[in-house]
Amino acid sequence: MTDERLLDIEHLHVELPARRRGGEPRVVIHDVSLSVAPGESVGVVGESGSGKSMTTKAVSRLLPRGAATTGEIIFRGSSVLGLSGRELAQFRARRISTIYQDPRAHINPLRTIGDFLAEGVVASGAMTRTAALEAACALLRDVGVPDAERRLTQYPHQLSGGLLQRMMIVMALLPSPDLVLADEPTTALDVTVQSDVMAVLAEQIRDRSLGLLFITHDLDLAAAVTDSLAVMYAGVIVERGPSREVSTNPRHPYTAALLASRPSLSSVTRLTAIPGRPISAFEAGPGCVFAARCAYATDRCRAERPAPQLIEGRSVACHRAEELGSVLPKVAMA
Length: 334
Ligand SMILES: Nc1ncnc2c1ncn2[C@@H]1O[C@H](COP(=O)(O)OP(=O)(O)OP(=O)(O)O)[C@@H](O)[C@H]1O
Prior knowledge:
Layout: E1 7-16, E2 26-36, E3 41-45, H1 52-59, E4 68-75, E5 78-79, H2 85-95, E6 96-99, H3 103-106, H4 113-123, H5 129-142, H6 148-152, H7 161-173, E7 179-183, H8 191-207, E8 211-216, H9 219-225, E9 228-233, E10 236-242, H10 243-248, H11 253-260, H12 299-303, E11 309-311, E12 314-316, H13 321-324
Helix pairs in contact: 4-5, 4-7, 7-8
Bound molecules: adenosine-5'-triphosphate.
Adenosine-5'-triphosphate binds near residues 16, 49, 51, 64 and 280.
Pfam families: ABC_tran (PF00005), oligo_HPY (PF08352)
Protein name: Oligopeptide/dipeptide ABC transporter ATP-binding protein
Organism: Kibdelosporangium banguiense
């Protein structure tokens, strides 16, 4: 990792148009800032509806029609929001790659793996078909797939889910992008296969000095494979910092609650569910977005939105972060 930045999301705010005429626009992302350095894997973790996918969609400029975006997204020093149509097409084809959740939903069952892998880079003019297949073979070996030549002649139904997701990793790496966006890439896989596939991806990111934005609801998995974590709730990043510290010594009550609510593989303990239901950004009141579910909320928390403050090398959006440092439970590394 270097000091140079690959991606800087600065004070991103996204509003979607009202669902009905006369309704209010709906805020889905509020004041989100995060950055990715070359070689760095960043996990964005949160419950359903917290705005994780919207954040990556904003980076690739694939937000729903009518979305209003303010703030900045700087990629290698240039504004993504300012790209022209042609520049945007280049940016999407060459600079970023996306890995989606369910490979079988994105792959044509009637075409070979080789055809599937080569298609994008050949169509964008980046490589000839022969060069693409050679590069795909080399990448398949890098991600631990033996017998690469034979795999390229096979059809999707002949591959397991884990193997197919490695193919998606190869497809993402083939155009030599700078940044990989992975949105719940392993959710469709068995738990043991999930961590293997993510470890392979994180290793490639490190070795090639790319950046990774890994979107997931699985805090343990994200903590295991990423360098930094951003914990999102209701369109806001409530805590951000080095993965190990955030996942073992949480400084925001929401991070602590997420950690307490997940099952442990090493011990049998009673799980503590987070009371209430998760909300979207547009349902939040003027105060802290987590106040209604927070065991430590005060009147100030309900009235005034906390600005992120820097505490022990991480950013925490909580009025009480300083005093709760000794109160929130620490977690042993799995
Ligand atoms: N295409 C869309 N049109 C309108 N609203 C949307 C659309 N997609 C998502 N939303 C809303 O935007 C908010 C953030 O959604 P987002 O998909 O980013 O959440 P998420 O954290 O990725 O959740 P999940 O893990 O369920 O995908 C939610 O309130 C959601 O209902």
